[in-house]
């Protein structure tokens, strides 16, 4: 369990409640700040600022932490709304300060992840390659000058004879 530094004395009560709740949720995940950064779109240093009370966390950061910990999202968002109004620095951290990158590992609630996306892309590319190869093999003639006539297996010619002959090596 992480030992937190005391929150700044200048932090309003509403903001203090939000940060304390976020700390509890972070503790429930069992993740370090680096682990939390890997599972979310926020850097380790951003999480440090949010959980130390230095910066107001963005609403989305509070939501994703709540989802990862399985917390009561309505409660956390209500705390966030109150803290936003009382926060001494004003608005949450600007989006430009965030690390814009996809998460790298799967979250417990099916949070979309980087490794999962790569796996899906690799499978899709493999299937596409197989379909294209099969299509090319089907479309190419078997021998130069061969014409392929599509007939059902065992179809009869006009004379009533089978189109299969003993001289035709193909079934």
UniProtKB/TrEMBL annotation:
Sequence intervals crossing the membrane: 120-140
Source taxon at top rank: Bacteria
Swiss-Prot/TrEMBL keywords: Membrane, Transmembrane, Transmembrane helix
Record keyword Transmembrane helix present: yes
Transmembrane in keyword set: yes
Record protein name field: Helix-turn-helix transcriptional regulator
Source organism of the structure: Streptomyces sp. 900105755
